Amino acid sequence: MIGELIAGRYMLEELCGSGGMSSVYRAHDRLLERDVAIKILHSSYLEDGDAVERFRREARSVAQLSHPNVVTIIDRGEEDGHQFIVFEYVPGKTLKDYLARRGPLPPGEALSLAIEVGKGLAYAHRQGIVHRDVKPQNVILNGDGLPKVTDFGIARSVDVEKGVTQTGTVLGTSDYIAPEQASGGPAVPESDVYGLGCVLFELLTGSTPYSGGSFVDVAMQHIHSPTPSVRERRPDVPARVAGAVERAMAKDPADRFGSMDEFVAELEACRAGLGRPADETTAVVPEAPVPVPPARPVRPAARRPPRRAAATLLPILLGLLVAGAVAAAFLLSGDGGVPLGVGGAESSGPVRLQAVVSYDPDGDGEEHAEAVPNATDGDESTYWTTESYRSPLSLIGKDGVGIVLDAGKSVKPSELIVITDTPGFTAEIRTGAAAEGPFDDVAADARTVEGRTSFELDDAESRYWLIWITNLGPNSAVHMNEVTVR
After folding, report:
1. Which residues are catalytic?
2. Residue 3 above 50 pLDDT?
3. What is the pTM of this model?
């Protein structure tokens, strides 16, 4: 359809993206001499009256919205039976693309983006419109980095299987879908609060809250599985920020923030508190009520399960025991977030294991440095990778390559566990006094690494640990999907 003229004025110039129901093109408006975006309903839906009506309803809904954080609708119509909607063209990338390039964001930046998205959604709610599909793919960052929400009113049908009894239409995308939507119920403003909570979770941790092999699998986790902890995947996130995400993602809509305005107000308070001492930023709600424009009566604060309340108080208790210490970090392990107190660490609280730098002393000094954090991000689907080699390392003059992990202080774990999707390579574990090396002390002898391999550490104690890869085995490159210690 590139080169086609729509409605006598919109010349299609580039396909920007395609989804289950429609495709979006960049087009040039010959009448007003400007670029626009056109969403065109797929031909397969032209005979589906419900789909056509949803498409028309989206145009009518968004036409009511005029807000800096919402993509503006310009026109709608029909051309040879094809339904189309014309939007302002926003040159930029989606928030999903930005996250894929950057990885987990600093808490301040993540909060700022979520606040702007929340403002656009709160405005829509005050106009009586629920988005129903809040996700990073539906947020575009313009040239100034300002988030603008798009794709209102999208519905998605799912064939429910595997013994699940819910039927009908499920609205939303499974990675961010609210439990009430996943159950086939109607979307409410609190559903968008849940979706934005999932988005903020991903901005902070680099991964979605749940993962699975199918839409239904992930949707069922949103309904039944416990709400995951931000701080178990990223311990440096302030407790108040993590608490706000958890409350937004409560299973029961009544336990979430009473409105998107209320959620945004809490996120703004979290952002304002980032520069304060840790013991001043652990509360989940402000000490004094924050005035917000109430779309309806504000509900009481969400009920907090005792388990999470204890986790929230942990930094305060540790602060009383250890003067000046801010100890709220959890070690990411294959069994979930487990406090690590080994060797000298037992007296100074939990420590954090973090992949900090790649190590290539016989080459250019680094191996895919931008992917290093993936090795300890708690997500086995992401990984750090070596460079790709066509010959064995020994034949190109390299004793090995590796990745360095920082425990934050000297620790004495009993084993180090490597998870990889490129089994068959050989590695050993070494220790050193600095992240840049040298790493002369061998803590665990070389062995072949399979999918999940445990290295027993012979009473080694160090802050910096090197996984030293000496042979790639059958691989041209080696992946380090996740590394933990016990």
Report:
1. 133
2. yes
3. 0.54
